[in-house]
Amino acid sequence: MRPENEALIVIDVQNDFCPGGALAVAGGDQIVPGINALLAEFPVRVFTQDWHPGDHSSFASQHPGLDPFAVTQMPYGPQVLWPDHCVQGSDGAAFHGGLETDYADLIIRKGFRRAIDSYSAFFENDHETPTGLEGYLRTRGVDTLTLVGLATDFCVNFSAVDAAKLGFKVTVDTSLCRAIDLDGSLQAAMDGMKAAGVTLR
Ligand code: VGL
Ligand code: ZN
Fold it and tell me: Beta partners for 8?
């Protein structure tokens, strides 16, 4: 068992990010057994769940004339437009069936406001609206995080960089992550995480 100040954060291991899902990440399902094994080692366990309304503004379907994976400008900055995914209450938004969700102390949902996307477990994509996770972790005495899940280059990356900026000691276990890898986004994410002081292993 790890010491009491350590939390495992399991990012978005949901059906839509696994093979057969709406925004499938190659090999997304392969990380499930390893995550289950790691959960048993941590005293604090948090899961995140991407949780969008059906008309979420990150969906290409809401932008006539634009296709999935195009980038558009939002009031808070550039935003990749995605296929509709992780719609609240849908099978696609459910956790992968093999994930041992009974371990979760806290499930934090994000991306539930129509007008703004939220990759990070800590802040929405304006980089200032908090999700509440920082307060939860600090009040439980946590200062050290291990992150795993989907996708390496989006939600894991944004969560890891925000956590490091907030002063947490952060490790990303890349063997238990898988990437979308749009136009070099995986390499950019790895470089960005390293520059932020995140340990990659
Ligand atoms: C994610 C794209 C859109 C992720 C979520 O979990 O990495 N990526 N929504
Ligand atoms: Zn999403």
Answer: 45, 146
Query: What CA–CA distance (Å, rounded) separates 164 from 170?
Result: 6
pLDDT, tens digit, for every residue of 79-98?
Answer: 999 999 999 999 999 999 99
Whether 50 and 93 have beta carbons less than 8 Å apart is answered as: yes
Q: What is the CA 26 to chain-centroid distance, rounded?
A: 16
Q: Can you list the alpha helix ranges (DSSP code H) found in 52-156?
A: 133-139
Give CA–CA dist 186/195, Å, rounded.
14
Q: What is the DSSP letter of 28?
A: G
pTM, two decimal places: 0.98
Ligand 1 within 6 A of 155 CB?
yes
Q: Which of 155, 157, 172, 181 to mutate to test the pocket of ligand 1 (most atoms within 8 A of CB)?
A: 155
Model confidence over 161-197: pLDDT tens digits? 999 999 999 999 999 999 999 999 999 999 999 999 9
Counting ligands in written order, which one lies closest to the CA of residue 11? 1
Residues counted in the chain: 201
